[in-house]
Write a structure and sequence with these properties.
- Helix 1 packs across helix 2.
- The protein has two helices and no strands.
- It is mainly α.
- The termini are far apart.
- This is Rpn family recombination-promoting nuclease/putative transposase.
Length: 51
């Protein structure tokens, strides 16, 4: 995660993204309502162009 802001906040300042990056297992368990055996983040950007 890049930190360009001198205040130490993530550059996009997106709290949800920040928490998911720090605690992927906990977030997945909270979202799905049951334990998840293995979580791997695969960050991607959504394309603004239609498919």
């Amino acid at each position: 995660m890049a930190y360009d802001d001198p205040t130490g906040r993530p550059e996009d300042d997106n709290v949800c993204k920040y928490l998911v990056e720090l605690f992927p297992d906990t977030f997945a368990e909270w979202l799905l309502g049951s334990p998840v055996p293995w979580v791997q983040l695969q960050p991607t950007e959504l394309s603004s162009k239609p498919i």
